[in-house]
Amino acid sequence: MSDKGGSMDGRTDIVNGSLSSSPEDMSAEEGRETSSGIEVEASDLSLSLTGDDAGAARGRASDSDSSGDKDSDSMDDTGHYSIPEEPRHDEDEEEEEEEEEEEPRARRRAPRKRPPHERDSSDEEQALEDWVASETWALPRPRWRAIPALRQRQLGGCSRFVAQACGARLFVQKFRLQHGLEGHTGCVNTLHFNQRGTRLASGSDDLKVLVWDWLRRRPVLQFDSGHKSNVFQAKFLPNSGDSTLAMCARDGQVRVAELSATQCCRSTKRVAQHKGASHKLALEPDSPCTFLSAGEDAVVFTIDLRQDRPASKLVVTKEKEKKVGLYTIFVNPANTSQFAVGGRDQFVRIYDQRKIDENENNGVLKKFCPHHLVNCESKANITCLVYSHDGSELLASYNDEDIYLFDSSHSDGAQYTRRYKGHRNNATVKGVNFYGPKSEFVVSGSDCGHIFLWEKSSCQIVQFMEGDKGGVVNCLEGGGSPSLCT
Residue 384: in which H helix or E strand, if any? Predict the structure, then answer.
């Protein structure tokens, strides 16, 4: 509480019609007596002032016997209680002496120290900021500038204007929510754009798959997936004219949906069956017939839709003799014979389909892992991994840990090259992805419902925005235009 004549030390309480200040040096027994000896009573209202406030009180204090048109308990225009004053000339000299004694005491009063818990909280925040800032580099200068690029496009000298703009930090920092698409009644676990970026497939816990014309904000097709439990992934097969969707789910089935040109689903059929949940599919670039699946049973299937029996077991992922359940799989776009898997341990494993020999190193070509996690007691899982656009880099997101970037050309056991911090990956099997035509950015969801975008080379967060108001952001997909779907 503050007033023109001075400031009150301590806090002000209004209890049972009383307004009183209670400084730290006032005991409960001195509740009605101040250090200056001033005591004012007005009906049931008692106002006690300490220190320099006594001088301000002299101009407003009144006797309880005074009566007037204005109620002494009423509030003035400022919202403060006002008490008319009755002059007390006989005590002026005594009050002045007490004020002179009080002033040195007020000056000697040290500023209130922060409680220990506040200091601890501040120290923890500073330590967290220091930790997030570690292993980061200065942001590089922007390689793309709008005005020169527009000028070159007008002159016909910039054929890749859109692609370059999509990878520009300027556009990423201007990301804003465009609109929401409502159609599912359960958690959405998967999103995938077709090759042209004009259609978006989504799968959900409601067992349905929707195909969206996302620019017009409406679904063009909705069908039952045929799965018996949560749909974890639904992807358009490349070069299929958007007529074939591959799906996998918690029930372990891998199914294929055949779509017609009349915007309906002709049929869905099962092409493989895992003995545990199947979380991810890996498409081979430019192949409309073949893809891979991975499951929590540690098995990787290769599926060729041209065969009578489409699925064949490619490898069983093991660490020594123990099977490792898989959460994620991705094919190297620059060398489709190679693929990477991750799951219920800390290792990224890379296989070559031409060289798999389970009697030699369990068929693994090479493994990557952050060195501090190799012998870590806490169990680290890989929830998602992806290759960059040219296959030169591999990104892995760890449960209860950070996101790590590896150089896929490095030898077995090589350390990570970049580390991305700040998000939270605990509640679900969370995805991670590159963004930009040349994989200029790293994007991930978080348990807090926000979307994180890091500049890849500097590891600095360049965009942080709300992705979900009431839940976790699991999956993120970039389209052909400067857009991002979550």
Answer: strand 382-387
